Amino acid sequence: SQQGEEDPQALSIQEGENATMNCSYKTSINNLQWYRQNSGRGLVHLILIRSNEREKHSGRLRVTLDTSKKSSSLLITASRAADTASYFCATIPQGGAQKLVFGQGTRLTINP
Amino acid sequence: KAGVTQTPRYLIKTRGQQVTLSCSPISGHRSVSWYQQTPGQGLQFLFEYFSETQRNKGNFPGRFSGRQFSNSRSEMNVSTLELGDSALYLCASSFLGGGNTDTQYFGPGTRLTVL
After folding, report:
1. Which residue, among A98, A100, A101, would best test binding to B if mutated, counting the most B CBs under 10 Å from its CB?
2. Measuring CA to CA, which of A66, B62, B92, B99 is 20 to 30 A from A51?
3. CB atoms < 10 A from the CB of B48, how many?
4. Nearest to B13 by CA among B85, B91, B90, B67
5. What pLDDT digit, counting tens, does each position of A55-103 carry?
6. Cα separations in angstroms, A106 against A99, B57, B100
7. Does residue B64 have a pLDDT over 80?
8. Contacts of B4 in chain A (CB under 8 A)
9. B104 DSSP 8-state letter
């Protein structure tokens, strides 16, 4: 079963703009991770944020986590055509096994 | 370090056949997890192996099985294939697994088509 709901399901923006994707989840978690997938290929790990962290940065990526609202957001700044991909949030529920529970993903398209 | 590798990359089978997929984790990683990705169900956890033992299992029928070898390489097997088994099968490895902050690194996947 899916743990997360991602919003929006699809997002189309112009190159250079910022892209924000949101993820909500249902149960308490240990950490939340964001992955990128290019057109039916493997998943590339972007960033992991622990449940006791509120914000994390990695290059042009900024992730926030609000455990009280059970939600996270991924911000990609100064988008590039190469950022076109599907983005998934994934959680490991607290007390659960080492198994990622994924959202349905956001399809991001960057227009040149 | 070399990444996670999966073989074969593409596979076409017919209903009723069985299939074996292979995954080689990143060197030093002891945990291997398998996921199924379909357009309808999204990404779903199949099972996780650690030190040759299945540690966790998702909600899939017994036709889906796996194993892990002493070198941490893993295989998954699907018997009596059904049309609905057509999917991208992804393997992920992590150093310890079972932990709360362990990043999983994914392979490129095996695209299985069942005719």
Report:
1. A98
2. B92
3. 28
4. B85
5. 999 999 999 999 999 999 999 999 999 999 999 999 887 766 668 889 8
6. 21, 27, 25
7. yes
8. 42
9. P
Question: What residue has token string 């941490």?
Answer: B72
Q: For residue B92, list its beta bridge partners.
A: B33, B106
The three-state secondary structure class of A40 is coil
Cβ-Cβ contacts under 8 Å, B90 against chain A = 42-43
Beta-bridge partner residues of A102: A90
Q: Look up residue B26 and give its DSSP letter.
A: P
Which tokens belong to B49? 């192996």
What tokens were used for A2? 């899916």
Beta-bridge partner residues of A72: A23, A65
Are A42 and B90 inside 8 Å of each other by CB?
yes
A84 φ/ψ angles, rounded to the nearest 5 degrees: -60, 120
Phi/psi at A32 (nearest 5 deg)?
Answer: -130, 140
What the block records as the tokens of A102 is 């994924």
pLDDT of residue B2: 81
Per the CB < 8 A criterion, the answer to whether A106 and A10 are in contact is yes
